[in-house]
Every structure is written in C-alpha cells, then in structure tokens.
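Problem: given the chain below (185 residues), write out its structure.
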Amino acid sequence: MIRLFDFVLALSGLLLGLPLFLLLAFVGLFDTGSPLFRQERVGRYKQPFTLVKFRTMKTDTASVASHLAGASAITPFGRFLRRTKLDELPQLWNVLKGEMSLVGPRPCLFNQSELIQQRAERNVFAWRPGITGLAQINDIDMSTPKLLAETDQQMLGKLTLGAYFKYILLTLAGNGSGDRIPGKD
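Solution.
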C-alpha cells in the first residue's frame, strides 16, 4: 500500500512541481554551473542506486557525508535549498522509479561503514531508503551512526500508513534541520 502512495505522490509532486523544478535548476545553473547532483548510495538490500538532488555544494567538493564537509563548501543558494529542504525534490524521481520511498531511512554512502554495519545488524536494509523519516524530523543525522540505525529500526518496526503521512506532514511543516555541516550548527 505504501508503494502505491509513494508512486502517486511522487508522480503528482513531479508534475505539479515542474515549474518550481525548472526555476530552481535555472538558478542552480548560475550558482554552480551544474544544478543537479548525482551520487551513488546504498539502497534496499545494500544495492547501489544513483540518488539525485539539487546541488548545494561547490562542484569540487569531496564526495563525503554532509557532516564531514566544511561549511565553506555550501553555496549561498545551497544554504537556501538546504534550509527549505528544496534540495530533496529531485529524489521524487528516485521514489517514482522504486529506488526510494517518501518515508524510510536516509540512504547512506558506501564509505559509511559504521552506519552500514549498524543498519545491517538491525535489518534496516530490508526497506527502501526514504526522503524523510523519524530520524530526520528529530534532527538525527549520519554523524551519530548507532543512534540513527536504532531510530531507523524503531520507525520501520512501527511504520503504519498513519505514521507514513505523519512523517511527510511534519517534514513539510519544517521539522528537522537536515544534515549537520561543521561550522553551521
């Protein structure tokens, strides 16, 4: 049932949001020269997939988790995108394709071995990664791997249709601040 809602909501978001996507891509083109950011992430059953977001960091930034990047790597427009969570919108394409869900554990990088181990121990990889979830609305990010994996497991163990919509609505209402960036918290 959740996959059906994922598909319908992602398709609706992509269609209705097209003018906003085009505007953000246009501004991003002038901000970094490359408005979209693609990165290989760990998906369901630890399978790789390419996550798509609006670029918030300079193009020469190392491919590391946000909490390991420096604050100077984020562009002024990128700060706006992160603060409003608009940088996440292109992931609706990942949801539409079935690589992600609207609600689930945030997909990590393959070099985040401690988080991968913690999630594997808790069977978190049996689920599709998500754009938002319990950890995100409670400001728990990848800088605390064990707590993040425990929170993911807690969410997935109690994920009902009601909780699914609750996490989406809380995210849209502005709960959670996104991944920490050193020097910005």
